Write a sequence for this structure.
């Protein structure tokens, strides 16, 4: 099935594009999508998941809703769902 | 409200406010009696300070420990070429003094810390976070949650902005979210490049800072619907605004059902802003 992936700020730079559609074979969860992204993009390695949980330094949306209020990384996805991944941003020249 | 009358000069200065039913003389008095602490006199703080001062917000506190650099001037429009090398708080205060004599500016040339945040925030109606680092952002969030102080949040990255409002009005029922409900922890130090490395579109913080100033003015007026429970994501390249719904997180470390953070002294703000191990 196809999942639309959207990236913001530092994740956008790590992936090199704002959005793209990716094909996944069979059922897939948010956590599995994030693990796939970590393995495919060097800049995302270790940035999305920690021991299978979504790291505290990012927000992941399924169709515009924070998956924290669903099943977290176990949230199941359906064909055509949109997954958005965005980090906090600081705002200046001391951005750490 | 004290008996504050608008004099003839003020009626003229604020006539475009006063003529509107949503503001009127009473609303303008609210603004003149209002107070805002602006943390950061940089890209976000510049337009915020300018519009809050122009609107007649009576007392503006400014916190910043930096001096003006020439590379700031591409976006930090409260400062001018002749201000290079001066403390930003002084430069911003001079701008406000020249713009509107109704406004009292209180300058604080220092960095916000867990030790001084209480005294700095205590006397203000609302806080506008225009800071440039995660330590200050998490510190302000935690303090404002714990003291139920309204907080305007704005942040930028290259061509993108994030802006929202946390009223922090908590009654125990349908309570609003806070910044940690969205991002429980700050990024690891060194993982987010700064704007000296990545660059930033100069006009970007202007847009975001103006939205923050709008939210603060509305809050002081007690009018309109705040940008609460909604994170507004702005993409200057697409010229698109997108709202992400934000809900309170029951597991939030500061405003959740069983919060770990009961005091800002519990948190190591120079790291990932997690609760301190000791």
């Amino acid at each position: 099935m196809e999942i639309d992936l959207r990236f913001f700020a530092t994740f956008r730079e790590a992936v090199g594009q704002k959005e793209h559609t990716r094909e996944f074979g069979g059922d897939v969860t948010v956590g599995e999508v994030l693990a796939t992204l970590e393995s495919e993009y060097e800049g995302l390695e270790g940035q999305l998941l920690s021991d299978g949980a979504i790291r505290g330094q990012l927000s992941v949306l399924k169709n515009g809703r924070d998956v924290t209020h669903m099943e977290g990384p176990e949230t199941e996805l359906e064909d055509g769902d949109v997954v958005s991944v965005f980090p906090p941003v600081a705002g200046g020249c001391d951005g750490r | 409200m004290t008996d504050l009358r608008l004099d003839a000069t003020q009626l003229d200065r604020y006539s475009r406010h006063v003529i509107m039913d949503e503001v009127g003389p009473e609303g303008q008095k609210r603004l003149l009696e209002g107070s805002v602490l602006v943390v950061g006199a940089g890209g976000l703080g510049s337009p915020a300070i300018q519009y809050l001062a122009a609107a007649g917000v009576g007392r503006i506190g400014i916190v910043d420990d930096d001096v003006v650099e020439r590379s700031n001037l591409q976006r930090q429009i409260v400062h001018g070429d002749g201000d290079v090398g001066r403390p930003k708080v002084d430069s911003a205060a001079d701008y406000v003094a020249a713009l509107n004599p109704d406004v009292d500016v209180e300058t604080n040339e220092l960095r916000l810390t867990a030790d001084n945040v209480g005294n700095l925030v205590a006397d203000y109606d609302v806080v506008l976070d225009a800071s440039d680092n995660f330590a200050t952002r998490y510190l302000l969030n935690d303090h404002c949650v714990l003291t139920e102080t309204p907080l305007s949040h704005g942040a930028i990255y290259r061509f993108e902005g994030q802006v929202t409002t946390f009223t922090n009005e908590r009654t125990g029922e349908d309570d609003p979210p806070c910044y940690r409900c969205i991002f429980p922890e700050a990024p690891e130090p060194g993982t987010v490049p700064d704007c000296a490395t990545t660059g930033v579109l100069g006009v970007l913080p202007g847009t975001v800072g103006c939205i923050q100033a709008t939210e603060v003015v509305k809050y002081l007026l007690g009018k309109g619907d705040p940008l609460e429970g909604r994170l507004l994501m702005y993409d200057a390249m697409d010229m698109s605004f997108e709202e992400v719904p934000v809900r309170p997180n029951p597991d939030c470390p500061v405003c959740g059902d069983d919060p770990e953070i009961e005091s800002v002294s519990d948190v190591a703000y120079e790291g990932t802003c997690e609760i301190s191990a000791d």
Chain B has a mean pLDDT of 94.
